[in-house]
Amino acid sequence: MSTPETSRFVRLRLELVLEIDDEAALTKAALRRLAEDEDMPDAERTHAENAVTEDTAEALAYLVEPFDLVSEVPGVELQQASWSSEPIDYDPDSPDWDLDGDDVDEDGDDEGVGRAGGIG
After folding, report:
1. Domain with 55 in it
2. Is the pLDDT of residue 114 over 80?
3. Which pTM was predicted?
4. End-to-end CA distance of the chain
């Protein structure tokens, strides 16, 4: 299916907006995940525990695992992943949050090939 000019690598960009309705449960789950990580050095664990306790976005980042998103997809192998989370002001009625619109890069080229629209 691929030609010599076609890259075998694909960058999948994903943006989610999540509503946290139980901060305590989220923090507890992140702390449990950290406690189960036997390979994490104690100093790093202490720092991570403080971060997830103080910041719900950090707790969420410790629970989201990109490998889990693609591990069951046949024919692909995760090569690299990075992700972050941050608290935001969200207004679903704002045109800035139109996830159904086509993504266009700075050159005017479509980037939204094969992606689903928003939920709701």
Report:
1. 21-66
2. no
3. 0.67
4. 36
Q: Closest Cα partner for 37 from 55, 58, 62, 54?
A: 62
In this structure, is residue 89 part of a structural domain? no
Q: pLDDT tens digits for 19-74?
A: 999 999 999 999 999 999 999 999 999 999 999 999 999 999 989 988 888 999 99
Tell me if 118 is assigned to some domain. Answer: no
Torsion on CA atoms 20, 88, 14, 119, rounded to nearest 10 = 60
Is residue 40 assigned to a domain? yes
Per the structure, the count of domains in the chain is: 1
Site of tokens 């939204």: 112
- What DSSP string runs through the chain? ---TTS-S--PPP-------S-HHHHHHHHHHHHHH-TTS-HHHHHHHHHHHHH-HHHHHHHH--HHHHHTTSTT----------------TTSGGG-TTSPPB-TTS-B--TT------
